[in-house]
Amino acid sequence: MALVLAGGGARGAYEIGALSVLLPALPAHERPRIVVGTSVGAINAAYLAANAQRPVRELVDGALALWRKITYGRVLKPLASISEATRLWSYAREVLGSRSAHAVSLLDPGPLTATLQELIAFEQVHRNVSAGHLSTAAVVATSGVTNLSVVFHDGGRSPEADRRRGITYVKTELSEQHVRASAAIPVLFPAVAVGARRRWYFDGGTRLNAPIKPALELGGRRVIVIALNWLGHPPEPKAERRPDALDGASQLIQAVLVDPLLNDVYTLATINDLLADDSEAKVRSHERRTGRRRIPYMLIAPEDPHEIGRVAAEVYRRHYRSPVALLRSPNVAALGRLLNASRGANRGELLSYLLFAEEFIERLIDLGRRDARRWLRSKHDLGRWQLGPLR
Question: How confident is the model at residue 257 (pLDDT cuts 50, 70, 90)?
Answer without folding.
Answer: low
